[in-house]
Amino acid sequence: MSGILVVFETRAGRISRISWEALAAAQRLAAAQNLTVTAAIVGADTESLAAEIASKGVPVVVVRVDHPLLAQYTPDAFTLALQQLIQSEAPAYVVFPHTYQVRDYAPALAARLGQVLISDVVDIAPQTGNTGPVFTRQLMQGRLNGNYRATGSGPCLISVQAGAFRAESSQPAATAAEIKSFTPTIEAAQIRTKPSEPFRGSAQSVDLGSAQLIVSVGRGIKEAENLPIVQELATALGAELAASRPICDNGWLSMDHQVGSSGQTVSPKLYLAVGISGAIQHLVGMKGSQCIVAINKDPDAPIFEIADYGIVGDLFEVVPALTAAIKAAKQ
Ligand SMILES: Cc1cc2nc3c(=O)[nH]c(=O)nc-3n(C[C@H](O)[C@H](O)[C@H](O)COP(=O)(O)OP(=O)(O)OC[C@H]3O[C@@H](n4cnc5c(N)ncnc54)[C@H](O)[C@@H]3O)c2cc1C
After folding, report:
1. What is the pLDDT of residue 46?
2. Is the pTM of this model over 0.85?
């Protein structure tokens, strides 16, 4: 048994950003264990997606797991296809992005293989001595970290949390990746569900998970009528608008704007937190951001503990000044 298999995921026909983060995690594991990495892309016609992975110059072999019955996601078909691929490739580790889709089928896949799934991993510590690597996952809304080590034989399945591994940390390879095909055996009768259109919360639903710039607003804004101040800053920056839970609970913004343990997990290049205190339930959703800027009038607000840059001040003064400065700089 050798190597690491990374299972890529697509959304609306495109490779999702968290798949690249899963690849970065696999590469970290590979470097520590001296293992090779294979990327699997599952679907009905994966030629261009496989070529996209191969063209990134990362040191992987790309496997196209192609079958007409994989055109649309179903847990039965994906479980069958990946079970066969894993049994054929016999990897030491299988790395998934921790998405809703993976949460849907990966536990069944692990059970079929007689393995455990270490889910929502936020860190990987390399092997020490004869013991394998340690996988860290968060417990109790991020208050505690739990360390896990695979002790059984057979492939170890892990899924990685969005934002925990930087996609940019993938190590580029000098040579182009090899692409090969794997055709699983799937019968239509084995698929027990009929897929419908993927769920979207509302017509104007925001995809914060793939946003590069986010301006997020909290209870410091005081009233719904004041939201345009922050919206204007987001527009000037070309950023998505997000919020802490009270803003969404109050109905000032729709629920798909909420960041945190009961909202979305985000990992943008810039997360600008305006009038947000930094409760643990909010932090677990945004701490993977590359650069965190906080504006808060309380110098002891917990958000400053994880902020890269902090502005202690009244948001009603700071935000309009910042918006004006950004607009001026763009002229
Ligand atoms: C099970 C559970 C799940 C939860 N899930 C989530 C979740 O997914 N997401 C989430 O966000 N929360 C979640 N919460 C709620 C969380 O515990 C906090 O209550 C919430 O994050 C606080 O939001 P806030 O920072 O906007 O408000 P507050 O904590 O009230 O903070 C407001 C901040 O604004 C600052 N401020 C006030 N006026 C100004 C001003 N004029 N200028 C500058 N700063 C100012 C204050 O100093 C303060 O720090 C959850 C709670 C539970 C129990």
Report:
1. 95
2. no
